[in-house]
Amino acid sequence: MDASFRTDPPGYFPTSYRDHSPVPAYGDTPPVPQPDHRIVPAWAAGIAVASIGVGAGVTGIGCGAWLVLQGLASVSLAGVLMGTLPFAGPAMAATAIGGAINRARSAVTKNVYEGPVTMRTEITSNSTTRGMFFTRTRNDIHH
User: Fold this and answer.
1) What are phi and psi of 44, to 5 degrees?
2) Residues 6 or more apart from 137 whose CB is under 8 A from it?
3) Distances (CA, A) of 118 to 22, 115, 121, 124
4) Cα separation of 67 and 17, whole Å?
5) d(Cα 45, Cα 32) in Å, to the nearest integer?
6) Residues 75-89, buried b or exposed e (16+ Cβ, 10 A)?
7) Which of 119, 130, 132, 134 sits most deeply, having the most CB atoms within 10 A of its CB?
8) How far apart are CA 70 and CA 27, in angstroms?
9) pLDDT bucket at 8, cuts 50 / 70 / 90
10) CA gap 47, 55 in Å, rounded
């Protein structure tokens, strides 16, 4: 029972290995065997690398969107005018040319009235109001 409640630290287990063989004084060192003991399967490592790539790509897209939105947030009148100037100039020229062509193609009408012009301005007005609280007014206008 006493052994199950022991508070001594567990024994030391090395997590690395140091090769104490002598290194030659000059020249290449001899090759050391490096056994391939992978902990993670190849498909899992591939998925991890792909997810890192996707994360980096999404981060790039997010940074691009941030830059665009920062640019839109700092829009000024001068910036808008400079941005639309390449489009507004040709559009204005096209509108002017179209208006000139339309005026050149439209038929010239000239109305000439011959004879006397009579204008009557006689107005006869009859106004009748009835009632005290709920009044009704009737206006008769005769030309």
Assistant:
1) -70, -35
2) 127, 128, 129
3) 131, 10, 10, 19
4) 50
5) 25
6) eeeeeeeeeeeeeee
7) 130
8) 59
9) low
10) 12
Structure tokens at 40: 């993670």
Structure tokens at 66: 């941030």
Would the pTM of this model clear 0.85, i.e. be above it?
A: no
Neighbours of 29 (CB within 10 A): 8
- Whole-number Cα distances in Å, 73 to 20, 60, 62, 79: 64, 20, 16, 12
Report which residue type is found at 128.
T
- Report the SS3 class of residue 140: strand
Q: Tell me the CA distances in angstroms from 25 to 20, 28, 33, one per residue in order.
A: 15, 9, 21
- Tens of pLDDT, residue by residue over 14-51, are 677 777 877 767 777 777 787 777 788 888 888 989 99
